Amino acid sequence: MSVAANDHDTTTTTTNVLENESDTMSTKLYDAAKAEAATVELKELERQISLSKSQASLGDVEQGSIERTNSSFMPQPKVPMRLAFGEVCTYVPAQFEEPGVLNSLKKAGKAVRSAFSSEVARAPERQILHNITGVVNPGEVVAIMGPSGSGKTTFISLLAGRNGLRTTGTILYNDQHKPTDKTFKRQLGYVSQEDVLFEGLTVFETLYYTAVLRLPRAMTDAEKRERVDVILEVLGISHVKDSIVGGVRIGRRGISGGEKKRVAIGQELLYNPSVILLDEPTSGLDSTTALNLVHTLHDLAQVGNRTIVTTIHQPSSRIYQMLDKLLLMGQGHLLFYGDASAATDYFAEIGYAMPYGMNPADYFLDVASGWSGEAKDCGNMCVGDPELKALLRAIEDKPHVKGELAEVKLANAYPAAEEGVDLVDGDGLKEAEPLGPTYLTQMRVICVRSIKERRFERFNVDSIGTVIFMAVLCGVLWFQAGVGASLATYKGAGDVGALLFFLIAFMSFNLLFNSIFTFPNEKTMLLKERDAKMYPISAFFFARTLADIPMDLAIPIGATTVIYLMVGLKPTVGAFLLTQVVVVITCFTAASLGLLLGAAFLNLKRAQTAATIVMLTLMLTGGFFVQNIPVWLQWLPYLSYMSYGWDALLHIQLAGRVPACPPGEEDCAMLNMGTVKFDTLGPQFGIILLMMVVFRFGVYLSLRWGAKNNR
Ligand SMILES: Nc1ncnc2c1ncn2[C@@H]1O[C@H](COP(=O)(O)OP(=O)(O)OP(=O)(O)O)[C@@H](O)[C@H]1O
After folding, report:
1. Residues β-bridged to residue 278
2. What is the per-residue pLDDT across 336-349, written as a single tens digit (0 to 9) for each?
3. Cα-trace Rg, the chain
4. Protein residue with its CA nearest to atom 31 in ligand 1
5. Positive or negative, the Cα torsion across 266, 271, 272, 274?
6. What's the 152 CA to ligand 1 centre distance in angstroms?
7. Least CB-packed of 243, 330, 353, 650 within 10 Å?
8. In the 8-state DSSP scheme, what is residue 342?
9. Pfam families from the entry (predicted)?
């Protein structure tokens, strides 16, 4: 069987690490029971695979060019979900809101004013969804169609609970779960329009890591791998399982656009959700690939009793025939909701008969665009289009309301479950929800995944090359400047002081500017995985911190060793080790500051600008360049971690080795070296470490609250 556990060299190490994790006794007992259940499920799967493969080959013959999918061997979701949405209206600000601090202050001011006034002041808004109502039953595939800008993405993201716009009306699953409920979100599979994938991972790794993060801890590693193989089979991407995803960021081509889309769908299918919501899964695909994909969705809905809603741009007539229900939208209005096969008759009834031989999907898009068959100056998207108004009037006069839509009114009557409040578990959802991976597993997977994802990144190679070049250049320029004889003069001591400042400044520059990339680059992935409640933000934070440690250690230690030997700094083991420790903790503090700026802005351009300003300020006030700082700015050097690092290095390398000062000029040796603030090393270490902890805590807070507001 092709889904038997395979050797995957790249993931074996991780697996071993993950397998070794020890849990508590009670968890083990629970796991054992679950594992038994999972084994039975897998055996059943194996039986179904062979059955369905023979059916699939029959299907190939029957359908000619259409490749039949093997979705029937996917395990069935435990709780079928009926989706009901009633009178959904959504509003956006009528005007673009200028981002920035000033605007935020203005908004805060307005909020305070309105809190004290009886009138509720609301900024002018534009309504983008108008009373969207309908019911989707388990086993159905509903296609949301409409011209560009008609509100498809807005609506499907509302169904997925991933849209923060002001919305009225009701969206309920099984008449009780709101899509935004934290406990329920995991039941929803949502595939967004953009492919949010790690470009540096292979297809198998992408799905495997998602499996470990999403599937119950009771499943063994082999079972998770088998599940991944099943998904690869179902989606027809087994042949690219060891290819990298690829993309612009890593500068490598990988799998095709259609394959990427299927990997994204696979990530959602892995945990076998009852509801799958897809935003334009067929865009960019050729018609046959698109047909195959819709065919797979259709199978998944029918075989597994899943509820599937997908937006679709311009389906071919063959795809259209495969849809169960059509939800047609035009400028945010619901134009039709019901059996896709009944749409043509309905539009003919209200005076919009489809011309003979036309693809119904094309015709409905024309109708929804307010197209009357003649070209207009403003194209087909005129606001207040008279044709669209006429259509809406005709629909209002003779609505296509089936009996089940009346049920939505009932759904409206249900009190919506408040977020965070325990659900009345009428459909057994809670019993169906097994324990996810442990915190330690989450951290390990995110950490290993980050290290693997970055294996293609050029900037690592570039930055190592830059550091080695600069270290050798320093060694040449200050060659043997640190030997005892050179230190016999104030000038010689000053030279070494300058080198030590350069060492601290250069090393921390390098790490700070490398680390500001971390979070802006992973922002979309973090938001996606956070939305799916895959792990707490702290697991991501600790894992990313761990993943950075090898590089953050290797670069400074390597460069400092080269410089130390070439310059001939203090030749004792103690001094060498202390110098390394000072450089490393200063670099960690700089990296923490870089992470903080990246996490606070989550926007590379702005983070880079902020980093340049902060870094230059810290450098100028670090004590080397300016000694007579204006009184009102004299607090600044105390914020410069560079000044503490440099101070510590001066102490280690020069204390007691420079010539004695003439009477009355006790500070002469440090004349060009700022002011040595402490006679011992402890306070410098303490302050740098404290700064590091504060910056890291800031990173955590920024990720926790910042990510939500940076969509
Ligand atoms: N956050 C927002 N702020 C302002 N306007 C918005 C916002 N979200 C959606 N809109 C507006 O709502 C309307 C519907 O947008 P939506 O993206 O849902 O359309 P769509 O049918 O998915 O379009 P397309 O097929 O081109 O993706 C558009 O006019 C869009 O400009």
Report:
1. 191, 310
2. 998 888 888 888 88
3. 31
4. 149
5. negative
6. 8
7. 353
8. G
9. ABC2_membrane, ABC2_membrane_7, ABC_tran
Tell me, yes or no, whether 232 and 289 share the same domain. Answer: no
Which domain-ending residue is among 272, 307, 326?
A: 272
Pair (414, 476) in one structural domain:
no
Place of tokens 């259940």: 37
Query: What pLDDT score was predicted for residue 352?
Result: 84
For 419, list phi and psi in degrees, rounded to 5.
-65, 135
Quote the pLDDT of residue 460. Answer: 65
Minimum-distance ligand 1 atom for the alpha carbon of 90: 12
Using CB atoms within 10 A of its CB, is residue 430 exposed (0-12), middle (13-18) or buried (19+)? exposed
pLDDT greater than 70 at residue 17:
no
pTM comes to 0.72
Nearest CA to ligand 1 atom 1: 92
Residue 446 or 9, more confident: 446
Identity at 556, one-letter amino acid code: P
Cβ atoms of 94 and 124 within 8 Å: the answer is yes
| CATH label of the domain that carries residue 283 | 3.40.50.300
Mutate to test the pocket of ligand 1, among 89, 152, 335 (most ligand atoms within 8 A of CB): 152
pLDDT of res. 563: 94
For the cut 50, the answer to whether the pLDDT of residue 3 exceeds it is no
Looking at the fold, whether 629 and 490 belong to one and the same domain comes out as yes
Distance 381 CA to ligand 1 centre (A): 13
Residue ranges lining ligand 1, Cβ < 6 Å: 92, 128, 146, 148-154, 165
- How would you classify residue 573: left for phi > 0, otherwise alpha for psi between -120 and 50, otherwise beta? alpha
Kindly give the distance from the C-alpha atom of residue 148 to the centroid of ligand 1, in angstroms, as a whole number: 8
Question: 516-538, pLDDT tens digit by residue?
Answer: 888 877 777 888 888 777 888 88
Return the best residue to mutate from 91, 126, 153 for the ligand 1 pocket (most ligand atoms within 8 A of CB): 153
Q: Which atom of ligand 1 is nearest to the CA of 151?
A: 18
Q: State whether 179 and 323 are in the same domain.
A: yes
pLDDT the model gives residue 225: 93
Total number of domains constituting the chain: 3
Q: pLDDT at residue 545 above 80?
A: yes
- Give the domain extent around 173: 74-96+122-187+275-424
Residues 152, 267 within the same domain: no
